[in-house]
Amino acid sequence: MREASITRTTKETDIRLSICLDGKGTFEGTSGIGFFDHMLTLFAAHGGFDLKLSAKGDLEVDNHHTVEDIGICLGQAIAKALGDKSGITRYGTFFCPMDEALSRIVLDLSGRPYLVFDVDIAVERIGTFETEMVREFFLALASNSGMTLHIACLYGVNGHHIVESLFKGFGHALGEAVSFRKDKSVLSTKGVLV
């Protein structure tokens, strides 16, 4: 089983996160932000990951520190669980419709962190969740996992639908990328993915 746990404690947050890449698609715990928990549940379910989270953050200030630090921890946990990445498919792509919204997620577990984020969300909040934090979450995750990640919402109107399509699509794309090929070597002409 490919799994890892990360703990991150700062003056702003206290986070304990674990992931199993070969799981059943479950999410346990809470970020303290209802809508964000809903998105993490969708990510885990659609990727086939088991994700556990205990998070305490300065939510009386705003969502920023908590959401970003969870992205940092999740990125580090994915990288740790993958190890040297032997045998993985490496690339993942998924188009995810959610009613009127359609998102495209493309990623490469290359070891080279990069984020392209082409998403417009018309509302500032969904519940208590600040929608500008969607980009910050994926930026922290990509940077700390060594992932090249391209996220685009091709079209959509409803903010909830748009963000939901991103998290579901990301789960599917990452699930594809971490799946195994028949050849157990590292999929790189350099012989290493770092």
Automatic annotation (TrEMBL):
It is found in: Cytoplasm. Pathway: Amino-acid biosynthesis; L-histidine biosynthesis; L-histidine from 5-phospho-alpha-D-ribose 1-diphosphate: step 6/9. GO terms for cellular component: cytoplasm. Its main location: cytoplasm. It catalyses: D-erythro-1-(imidazol-4-yl)glycerol 3-phosphate = 3-(imidazol-4-yl)-2-oxopropyl phosphate + H2O. HAMAP family: HisB (MF_00076). This is Imidazoleglycerol-phosphate dehydratase.
